[in-house]
Structure formats: structure tokens, C-alpha cells
Fold these 3 entries.
Entry 1:
Amino acid sequence: MISLTFGLMAALCWGLHDFVVRDVARKAPALPLLALVLGFGAVLLGPLTLIDGWGGMTPRAMGIAALSGGVYVLGCFGLYRAFAIGPVGLVSPICGAYPLVTLLLAMAAGREIGGREWFAVALVVGGIALVAGHREPGQGARLAAILWATLGATGFALTFQLGQIAAREGGDLAVTLVARLVALMLVLAVLSVQRQRLAPALPHWRPLSLMGALDMGALSLVLASGSLPRPEYAAVASSLFGVVTILLAWRFLNERLGRVQALGVAVVFAGIALLAAG
């Protein structure tokens, strides 16, 4: 199923993105980092949107896309703040637990969700809970990190739902660009009000530009699925990004992957495979 494939590709992009975030988020405040990531993504996406054209962009689609960009800021800010104070094994799984919200929103929009889909999502969320429930000594769960990560998960679920609605009318690239520009303007406005500068984030422009490209690609893939059958599958599959991040941290940062975490990873893959079999 194409929607599922798009979601898996997005998960790879966001998994790499969060692997880089883990290090960068501890070196500068969240808002300047987010501003540069959004800016780099917009610069890359602009020429592609001009080539693709604005398609059937309508005032309604532009308004929904703008709202999608607004809630995306909340999701990203929650993610960045959570990574600044919490370990990957805690933050990534919680941020990736948005499939339940995604399916509830799909039901509210009139889509029929069968028992197999619910069971598959239960496997995904259950696997994420297993990964998040295992703690290394000295890495106890921090309430603040959990709350910020929860904000991130809610923001992402709303972003995908609103963005896919807009993409069905206005084209996925155009909608993604509008959402990103609105998000960038909101972040810059908050920076101005708080009198924060971009200077602390500028020395890290190389990883931030990579993060901008990965984030732009992942979001475009999920929103592009809005015009495909079962678009919610893309959002569900993209939640695998937390597992990708944890595996990267295990492989390259020597973060221990315990038996419980390994079981959680296997359960998540089982849920994705069940969706793919539909």
C-alpha cells in the first residue's frame, strides 16, 4: 500500500532527524534551533513547489495548511524540549505514540476503522510502551520530559490530520510550504517577543540544514498520502521513527538495547506488518 510505504519512508527521515536532534538540542535553546530547521526546509522546498505548481490551492486549503503549521510548531517545540532533558529511550517512544489520536481523528472524519487496524495500532503503541518502560540505571523518567513529549505527539497527530485535508485540495508540496512558512513566522515572532537571538544556533547550521531537509521530506511524504487510500496508514507507519532513533542510538552511541526494548521493537514491527497485510 502506497500510504504505508510513504509512512515508512517518513519514519526513516524523522528517525535520522531525531538522532541528530538528540545532540544538537543540548547545545542551544529550542526555538532558535527550530527556526533554522524550518528555514532550511523552506529554502529547499520553495523551488520544488514552484516547479510542481500551486495546483488547486484554495483559500480554504491555505487556511487549513496554515493551521497545520501552527500546531506543527507545538509538536516540534515539545519534541525539542523533551530531547533537551530526557533520554532517547523515553522521549522517542512517547512522541511516536500518536497513532491512536490519528485513528480517532480519522473516525471523526467519517473513515471506517476496522478491528484489524485497531489491533495493529495497539501493537504499535504497546511496543512503544515496552521500549519506553525499560529504564537504564540513572535514567529515571522525568515528568517534564514526558509532558513535553506528549505535547509533541499531540501536535504531530493534529498536523498530519489537518495537512492531509489541505493536501487533498491544494497539493502536497504547496500545502507543506505554506505550513512551514507559517510555522517559521510563528517561531520568529515568539523569538522577537522573548528577545531571543538566532546566534546560539548558527554554529550548528550544518546539522540543522540536514535536519531541515529530513523534516521537510518526511512531512511532505505524510501529507502527500492525503489523496491516497487509507491516508491514516502513513501517519501510523511514520510513528516508527522513534524505533529508528533508538536503533541508531544503540548502534552508534552505544546506548544499551535491553531485552524488553528489543521485544518492544519486534512488537512495533509486527503491528506495521499487520497494516501492510491489509
Note: Confidence is low (pLDDT under 50) at residues 136-141.
Entry 2:
Amino acid sequence: MQPDNVFLPAVLIPVYNHEAAITVTLEQVLNSGLPILLVDDGSDKPCQDVLQQLAEQQPERVFLHRLPVNGGKGAAVKAGLRWLQRAGYSHGLQVDADGQHDIDDIASFIAQAQASPQSLVTGYPQYDKSVPRLRLYSRYLTHIWIWINTLSFTIKDSMCGFRVYPLMRVVPLLESCGNRMDFDPEIIVRWFWRYPDIINIPTRVLYPIDGVSHFLLWKDNSLITLMHTRLFFGMLARLPRLLWRKLHG
């Protein structure tokens, strides 16, 4: 484990059956010069084989951590963040495998994280016409609940999976968070409850290279609804402290 004053970031990419996109995404991320951890979230064999080949091509830069069964994006990110901390890294930069994030922004994210190493640096999506309308509108509904559950507009977007996490601070929060698409919004709310240090960076978002979405409409929406309910009652329990922070922060 690194001392608090050492800044040693690595990239974390959760992957589930994105064999058509991950090669392009990884090639772009390699340009950042950072070490990269691929977390195979129980992918099928075609994707397993691609990930194995990619790791073998860059054994000093690209590491592969396999999960035996598919647990969901949140489960993969949790496993990856814990792996990075055990390996001695200080920060984990999460990037989606499907190519929707603007990899050129990695340098800006890392620079912000290095300047404010105790802060969570998160993307604030700037969409083009490729974004599905339904997904865009549903995000705004989630934003409203996030603002209610934090009593703050600090979090500009809670669902963007392009983030830099300080590992010493975030790993203790993981156990309370969901394992699927509910992870990204829940972890940032729980982070805000504990630490107000959040930096939002505008970043271009595209949809996506391989056209594969693992969002399960009924299951994931149900989990997200349960998450918002859970967070609402958590907010009520923290209401005095949040109000004090709002009034005196």
C-alpha cells in the first residue's frame, strides 16, 4: 500500500462481452502511459480470448483480473478497485469498455486528481446526437433524486462511469453499494455523504462503438429505484449533518 503522499494512478476497465470494442478502447488508453487493469466480468469465451490476448501482448502494462461469473458492472468495478489498492496504486481511473468515453480527456482527469488527490474526479457528459433520447431523459430523473439525496447540486451527473477514485477513501465505501448499474450513482452519493470533495469535468460522450448495451430495462430500473429509496432514507438519517454542511460550507 502506498503512503498518502504518493500519487500512483492506474486505469480500470470493466469488461463484459465487449470483444468488438475493447481492442480499440485499450489501444487508445495505452496512449495515456498508465498501467491498465481489465476486469473480465464473467464474459463468454470469445471475449475471454480477446482479453487474454490483449494482456499477453502488453504484460508489463496490461493486467487481467477474471471474475468467475457475471456479477454486473458494479461488481466488476468493486473487484477492480480492490485489486488496484492491493497492488499498491493510489488512484483508480474508471473507463467504460465500449468506447463511449473521450479517452483524450484522461490527461485532464489525472491532472485534476494529482492536484486534488483527496477528491473524486468525475465526468460531466457532453452528448452529441448519438445519445438515445430515452436514456437522456431518464438520466434527468435520476439527477433529481441525487440532488434530493444529497441536498446539493454538487454532483452534476451521477451515472457517468468516467471517474478517478482515491482508493484509500473509496474502498471502505464499496460494501454498501449495488453490483449492477446502480453502482455509479450510489457510490458517488455515499462519497458525498462522507466527503464533499468532488470535481466535475465536462467530457464528450458517444454511444457506443459496438452497439452493445448490458442495461437490463426491468431489472436495472428496479435496482435503481430500490437504490434511490435506500439513499433517501440514508439521507434522512444524515439530514442534520447535511444541513449543517450546506449552511456552513
Note: The chain has a mean pLDDT of 89.
Entry 3:
Amino acid sequence: MRISKRLAFAVSAAAITLSVGASQAQELNLKIGTEGAYPPFNNLTSDGKLVGFDIDIANALCEEMKAKCEFVTQDWDGIIPALISGKFDAIIASMSITEERKQKVDFTQKYYNTPSAVAGPKDSDIKEISKAGLAGKTIGVATSTTHFNYASQTYTDSEIKGYPTSQEFLLDLANGRLDAVEDDISVLEGWLATPDGACCKILGQPSPQPAEIFGEGAGIAVRKGETALVEKFNAAIQAIRANGKYKEINDKYFSYDVYGG
């Protein structure tokens, strides 16, 4: 059967329209929640720009997924409720994958895993990171974190002082209002390398560091049941690990591999 040129053109145009429509329907638009107060992982500069390892990783993942992504800053204590309520679609904010959090959200595989550490003044008399070694000391830790959970459960003879952000307890440590602080070793080492951190040093690391408290590493959190989004992120994490983009970002911030074993 022969088709007129006019009819053939109309059929071709309709096919193009359907193709474009399908392409637009598949475009992935995501809002990414982050804290913006946890350098060197995520932080807001004085002019309001989000920077840090988490931010660069998020941008690389979005590029790999061909997704259009927008960042939303959120206080840490309310970040999971904000995700669940739909304020954003995923959390990329150095959130440890723990069994407790898995009851509320779903996680991707880890995208990094670094240990906890304790820092204090250079002239500190603390010799051992343990219940006995920190007895009678005042320790600053960010609330709603794995570090806070561990410190509260382990250093029961110490005063555990909770803070909204790590920046606030580091300021109190520098000003002599705390005996020690506990946080991710990468965060503490980054701060110690600045003029503000010249007062202090790493005193040691908790040992052991139980997975039931500290989790399996930092992952990306999404709402319960959003399996397809988890799979997209996992594939993107594996891709940037394989193509060298992850290492490029890692080396921008750290002198060692933060992905962990």
C-alpha cells in the first residue's frame, strides 16, 4: 500500500512528538536535602553557596543519572522528617546507614565510610578513649548522630553535651569550654588543619566501633519503598567509582581513600 507524502509527513511528525514526550516524561528531577553545616562534607559559604564532598558527590551522581537536581538545606535534627514529608527526594548529608534509621527510610549502598575519633586540647591529660579514660570529662557531640549515641552509651561517667552542629562544639572546644569532642575523623582532621583548630589534636579513636551503632558507612536516604531511586543511585555510585570521578572528588578533599574497606 502506498502512502501519500502528506500522510507520511504527518505520521513522521507524530512519531517525533511521541518520542520527545517520552523523553520529557523520563527526565529525572530531584531535590537533594543536605545540612550545610558539616565541613568538609557539606557546608554553606558566607555567600550562601553549598560546597563540600557530599555536594560534589551529589552533583556527580546527578550527572551520571542525567538528572536535574536542586539542593535544599535542612537542620540535621529534622532532616529525616523533612524527607518523609516530601520536602526533598533524597538525603546526601553524610548520614550513617543504621538499623534504627532503616526503620524510617531506605538507603543506598555506602558512598564513604570513615571512623569516629576524639579530639581535645594539645595539653590534654586524656590518655585513653574509653569509659574510664574519659571519666569526669565534658564531651561535646552533635545530637541525633551515631557519635552522640555511642558517647551517651559508652562514656557513662562523663558529661555528654549535645550540640545542633559540629561547628558549635568545635568552637566551645577551642574556647576551653569542653574537655573533648567526638566526631568523624575526617571532620576533626579538617578542622585541626585550620587556624581555629591549632589548639587541639586527635586524642584517639574509640575501639571497637560497633556496627550496630556506627552503621555500615554513609549512604543516601530516600523514602520507604522507593526502590527504583535506590537502584539508580547505586548504579551511579558504582559508575563514578569505576570511571575515576569518585577518586577525583576524594582527592580534592582528602589525602586518603574515604570509601573505606
Note: Residues 1-25 have pLDDT under 50 and may be disordered.
